[in-house]
Amino acid sequence: MELKPPLPPGYSTVSPGQIASVVTCLEMRQRPEISVPEQDGMSFQRWKSPYLGEYRALYRAVGENWLWVSRLEMPDDELTATLADRDVETYYLEAGSQKIGFLELDFREAGQCEIVYCGLVASAIGRGGGRYLMASALNAAWSRDIDRLWLHTCHFDHPSAYAFYCRSGFKPFQFMVEIIADPRLSGSIPKTAAPHVALLEA
């Protein structure tokens, strides 16, 4: 992740066609007591070398309303290489025969792991799948020899995300501002996505 210099105090404008999110980074410096809750009908599965179409479909189903876009716009060869990397682990949460959750862990930085993506499809929220997915994520991450686990969330995410991460044992350590082209204007995701984020059209 390439970081720009800190913004000066005061208001900063954003160029037309772009959106800005306030990002909160959280971390955990030691393995917690992990108890994976029993969830009838749900299973947590490793997803090795997934077919890109199926991967992007689940990524979209989980993240479209929170403006997840990087994996949709990433070139196929780059995404294939990322998912095939031995230090990147992808998982899904399944209920019945349906994939309802998604997790990606990145161990490419020595001694640490980033939870790059973690989320559920809208219909699965509030059914206990989030706790099961996070407990499974913690178990998978700390199964390797790491001394730091971290993630980030932003104000585009589900309103309960930050509190959920804190309850899971993460502590905030940094704010960032991310500016990207609004993917609803480029057509990467529908204009109806993320109604909680203003859409400014020329």
Can you characterise this structure?
- The protein is of the alpha+beta class.
- A seven-stranded mixed beta sheet has the order 2-3-4-5-6-1-7, sandwiched between helices.
- It has one domain (18-31, 38-186): Gcn5-related N-acetyltransferase (GNAT) (Aminopeptidase, 3-Layer(aba) Sandwich), CATH 3.40.630.
- It has helices spanning 52-63, 70-73, 76-84, 129-141, 161-167, 183-186, and strands at 18-28, 42-46, 88-95, 98-106, 112-120, 148-154, 171-181.
- It is built from six helices and seven strands; from the N terminus they run ββαααβββαβαβα.
- Strand 4 (98-106) and strand 5 (112-120) form a beta hairpin.
- The relative contact order is 0.24.
- The two termini are 30 Å apart.
- It is globular and about 50 Å long.
- The model has no long low-confidence stretch (mean pLDDT 94).
